[in-house]
Design a protein that fits this description.
Layout (H helix, E strand, L loop, with lengths): L10 H22 L5 E3 L11 E3 L2 H16 L8 H7 L4 H16 L2 H14 L6 H12 L1 H5 L5 H19 L3 H4 L3 H17 L6 H20 L1
Antiparallel strand pairs: 1-2
Helix pairs in contact: 1-3, 1-4, 2-6, 4-8, 6-10, 8-10, 8-11, 10-11
Protein backbone atom coordinates (compact mmCIF):
# COMPACT_ATOMS: atom_id res chain seq x y z
CA UNK A 1 0.00 0.00 0.00
CA UNK A 2 2.90 2.37 0.67
CA UNK A 3 4.51 1.85 -2.73
CA UNK A 4 1.57 1.26 -5.07
CA UNK A 5 0.14 3.84 -7.42
CA UNK A 6 -2.54 3.30 -10.01
CA UNK A 7 -1.22 2.63 -13.54
CA UNK A 8 2.40 2.35 -12.24
CA UNK A 9 4.54 -0.77 -12.05
CA UNK A 10 6.14 -2.28 -8.93
CA UNK A 11 9.60 -0.71 -9.28
CA UNK A 12 9.25 1.17 -5.98
CA UNK A 13 8.19 -2.01 -4.21
CA UNK A 14 11.24 -3.78 -5.65
CA UNK A 15 13.54 -0.98 -4.52
CA UNK A 16 12.09 -0.95 -1.01
CA UNK A 17 12.32 -4.73 -0.64
CA UNK A 18 15.94 -4.77 -1.87
CA UNK A 19 16.81 -1.97 0.55
CA UNK A 20 15.32 -3.90 3.47
CA UNK A 21 17.25 -7.02 2.46
CA UNK A 22 20.46 -5.03 2.10
CA UNK A 23 20.02 -3.39 5.49
CA UNK A 24 19.51 -6.77 7.15
CA UNK A 25 22.69 -8.01 5.44
CA UNK A 26 24.60 -5.05 6.87
CA UNK A 27 23.23 -5.68 10.36
CA UNK A 28 24.33 -9.30 10.03
CA UNK A 29 27.86 -8.15 9.26
CA UNK A 30 27.91 -6.06 12.43
CA UNK A 31 26.93 -9.13 14.47
CA UNK A 32 29.65 -11.25 12.85
CA UNK A 33 32.27 -8.66 13.84
CA UNK A 34 31.82 -9.66 17.48
CA UNK A 35 33.00 -13.22 16.80
CA UNK A 36 36.77 -13.33 17.09
CA UNK A 37 36.63 -9.58 17.57
CA UNK A 38 39.20 -7.44 19.36
CA UNK A 39 38.56 -4.12 21.07
CA UNK A 40 41.16 -1.38 20.58
CA UNK A 41 41.47 1.45 23.10
CA UNK A 42 43.71 4.46 22.52
CA UNK A 43 45.96 4.56 25.58
CA UNK A 44 49.26 6.20 26.42
CA UNK A 45 52.06 4.55 28.40
CA UNK A 46 51.13 6.42 31.57
CA UNK A 47 47.68 4.82 31.61
CA UNK A 48 47.24 1.41 33.22
CA UNK A 49 44.55 -0.07 30.97
CA UNK A 50 45.48 -2.33 28.06
CA UNK A 51 45.14 -1.30 24.42
CA UNK A 52 43.81 -4.56 22.96
CA UNK A 53 41.36 -7.01 24.48
CA UNK A 54 39.26 -9.78 22.98
CA UNK A 55 35.48 -9.57 22.87
CA UNK A 56 34.00 -11.39 25.86
CA UNK A 57 33.27 -15.10 25.44
CA UNK A 58 29.56 -14.75 26.25
CA UNK A 59 29.15 -11.91 23.77
CA UNK A 60 30.79 -13.96 21.00
CA UNK A 61 28.59 -16.95 21.75
CA UNK A 62 25.51 -14.71 21.82
CA UNK A 63 26.47 -13.36 18.40
CA UNK A 64 26.63 -16.87 16.96
CA UNK A 65 23.32 -17.71 18.63
CA UNK A 66 21.78 -14.65 16.96
CA UNK A 67 23.09 -15.74 13.57
CA UNK A 68 21.81 -19.28 14.10
CA UNK A 69 18.36 -18.00 15.01
CA UNK A 70 18.00 -15.20 12.46
CA UNK A 71 20.21 -16.03 9.47
CA UNK A 72 20.87 -19.77 9.37
CA UNK A 73 17.35 -20.62 10.48
CA UNK A 74 15.63 -19.66 7.25
CA UNK A 75 14.50 -16.00 7.55
CA UNK A 76 10.92 -16.66 6.48
CA UNK A 77 9.96 -13.00 6.94
CA UNK A 78 12.02 -12.18 3.84
CA UNK A 79 10.15 -14.76 1.77
CA UNK A 80 6.97 -12.74 1.34
CA UNK A 81 5.03 -14.24 -1.56
CA UNK A 82 2.78 -11.22 -2.05
CA UNK A 83 5.86 -9.08 -2.63
CA UNK A 84 8.06 -11.54 -4.52
CA UNK A 85 5.32 -12.43 -7.01
CA UNK A 86 5.19 -8.76 -7.99
CA UNK A 87 8.88 -7.90 -8.30
CA UNK A 88 10.63 -10.96 -9.77
CA UNK A 89 10.03 -14.26 -11.49
CA UNK A 90 12.80 -16.05 -9.57
CA UNK A 91 15.70 -15.32 -7.24
CA UNK A 92 14.73 -15.63 -3.59
CA UNK A 93 16.40 -19.00 -2.99
CA UNK A 94 19.69 -17.70 -4.38
CA UNK A 95 19.33 -14.46 -2.42
CA UNK A 96 18.90 -16.37 0.85
CA UNK A 97 21.75 -18.71 -0.04
CA UNK A 98 23.98 -15.74 -0.81
CA UNK A 99 23.20 -14.14 2.56
CA UNK A 100 24.00 -17.34 4.43
CA UNK A 101 27.09 -18.06 2.32
CA UNK A 102 28.45 -14.57 2.98
CA UNK A 103 27.85 -14.91 6.72
CA UNK A 104 29.55 -18.31 6.92
CA UNK A 105 32.49 -17.05 4.85
CA UNK A 106 32.89 -14.16 7.28
CA UNK A 107 32.78 -16.49 10.29
CA UNK A 108 35.32 -18.84 8.70
CA UNK A 109 37.62 -16.07 7.52
CA UNK A 110 41.17 -17.31 8.28
CA UNK A 111 42.17 -14.07 10.00
CA UNK A 112 39.15 -14.34 12.29
CA UNK A 113 39.95 -17.98 13.05
CA UNK A 114 43.57 -17.02 13.78
CA UNK A 115 42.46 -14.45 16.35
CA UNK A 116 40.17 -16.99 17.99
CA UNK A 117 42.95 -19.58 18.15
CA UNK A 118 45.31 -17.06 19.73
CA UNK A 119 42.63 -15.93 22.16
CA UNK A 120 42.17 -19.57 23.20
CA UNK A 121 45.93 -19.97 23.71
CA UNK A 122 46.24 -16.77 25.77
CA UNK A 123 42.98 -16.81 27.76
CA UNK A 124 42.06 -20.48 27.91
CA UNK A 125 38.56 -21.15 29.23
CA UNK A 126 37.72 -17.46 29.07
CA UNK A 127 37.95 -17.57 25.27
CA UNK A 128 35.32 -18.55 22.72
CA UNK A 129 37.32 -21.13 20.80
CA UNK A 130 37.02 -22.11 17.13
CA UNK A 131 35.99 -25.58 18.22
CA UNK A 132 33.15 -24.07 20.31
CA UNK A 133 31.94 -21.99 17.38
CA UNK A 134 31.98 -24.91 14.95
CA UNK A 135 30.04 -27.11 17.35
CA UNK A 136 27.45 -24.36 17.91
CA UNK A 137 27.07 -23.90 14.14
CA UNK A 138 26.76 -27.62 13.42
CA UNK A 139 24.15 -28.12 16.15
CA UNK A 140 22.01 -25.45 14.49
CA UNK A 141 22.70 -25.92 10.78
CA UNK A 142 22.39 -29.71 10.88
CA UNK A 143 19.59 -29.92 13.44
CA UNK A 144 17.40 -31.83 10.94
CA UNK A 145 19.97 -34.63 10.87
CA UNK A 146 19.80 -35.10 14.64
CA UNK A 147 16.03 -34.69 14.78
CA UNK A 148 15.39 -36.84 11.70
CA UNK A 149 13.37 -34.07 10.09
CA UNK A 150 12.67 -33.09 6.51
CA UNK A 151 15.23 -30.66 5.07
CA UNK A 152 13.92 -27.71 3.06
CA UNK A 153 15.66 -26.38 -0.05
CA UNK A 154 16.96 -23.38 1.88
CA UNK A 155 18.48 -25.59 4.54
CA UNK A 156 19.92 -28.03 2.01
CA UNK A 157 21.70 -25.12 0.36
CA UNK A 158 22.97 -23.95 3.74
CA UNK A 159 24.30 -27.38 4.72
CA UNK A 160 26.15 -27.68 1.41
CA UNK A 161 27.60 -24.21 1.92
CA UNK A 162 28.85 -25.09 5.41
CA UNK A 163 30.69 -28.15 4.11
CA UNK A 164 32.18 -26.04 1.31
CA UNK A 165 33.42 -23.62 3.97
CA UNK A 166 35.25 -26.41 5.77
CA UNK A 167 36.69 -27.53 2.44
CA UNK A 168 38.02 -24.03 1.76
CA UNK A 169 39.72 -24.11 5.14
CA UNK A 170 41.46 -27.36 4.20
CA UNK A 171 42.53 -25.89 0.86
CA UNK A 172 44.35 -22.90 2.36
CA UNK A 173 47.98 -23.09 1.28
CA UNK A 174 49.62 -20.27 3.24
CA UNK A 175 52.34 -21.44 5.61
CA UNK A 176 50.68 -19.27 8.25
CA UNK A 177 47.60 -21.48 8.19
CA UNK A 178 49.40 -24.78 7.65
CA UNK A 179 50.95 -24.39 11.10
CA UNK A 180 47.74 -23.59 12.95
CA UNK A 181 44.86 -25.66 14.32
CA UNK A 182 42.46 -24.57 11.58
CA UNK A 183 42.86 -27.55 9.29
CA UNK A 184 42.81 -30.06 12.14
CA UNK A 185 39.52 -28.60 13.38
CA UNK A 186 38.05 -28.59 9.87
CA UNK A 187 38.96 -32.26 9.35
CA UNK A 188 37.52 -33.19 12.74
CA UNK A 189 34.22 -31.44 12.00
CA UNK A 190 33.94 -33.09 8.58
CA UNK A 191 34.44 -36.48 10.25
CA UNK A 192 31.81 -35.58 12.83
CA UNK A 193 29.35 -34.66 10.07
CA UNK A 194 30.14 -37.89 8.23
CA UNK A 195 29.23 -39.90 11.32
CA UNK A 196 26.04 -37.89 11.82
CA UNK A 197 24.99 -38.37 8.20
CA UNK A 198 25.71 -42.11 8.27
CA UNK A 199 23.04 -42.59 10.94
CA UNK A 200 20.49 -40.22 9.39
CA UNK A 201 17.55 -41.90 7.69
CA UNK A 202 15.63 -38.84 6.49
CA UNK A 203 11.86 -38.49 6.41
CA UNK A 204 11.46 -38.10 2.64
CA UNK A 205 13.24 -39.07 -0.54
CA UNK A 206 14.76 -35.62 -1.17
CA UNK A 207 16.23 -35.48 2.32
CA UNK A 208 17.71 -38.96 1.94
CA UNK A 209 19.25 -38.06 -1.42
CA UNK A 210 20.64 -34.90 0.15
CA UNK A 211 22.25 -36.79 3.04
CA UNK A 212 23.80 -39.29 0.63
CA UNK A 213 25.12 -36.46 -1.50
CA UNK A 214 26.68 -34.72 1.50
CA UNK A 215 28.34 -37.96 2.62
CA UNK A 216 29.81 -38.51 -0.82
CA UNK A 217 31.01 -34.92 -0.96
CA UNK A 218 32.83 -35.31 2.36
CA UNK A 219 34.49 -38.50 1.09
CA UNK A 220 35.63 -36.63 -2.02
CA UNK A 221 37.12 -33.88 0.13
CA UNK A 222 39.15 -36.38 2.14
CA UNK A 223 40.26 -38.20 -1.02
CA UNK A 224 41.56 -34.91 -2.43
CA UNK A 225 43.15 -33.73 0.81
Amino acid sequence: EWTSEDTKDFSELRELYNNVFGQFRRYTGHVVANVGGVYEYNKSSDEEEVVYTHVEKDKQRDAVSFLNANVFKTPEWLIEKDILSRIEETGITERIRGLQDRTLAQLMNPNRLSRMIENDAVNGSEAYAVNDMMDDLIASIFSEVVGNQSVSLYRRNLQRTFIEGLERTLDMESNKYEHSDMKAIARAKLKKLKRMLSSASGTDEMSRMHYDDLSERIEEIFDAD
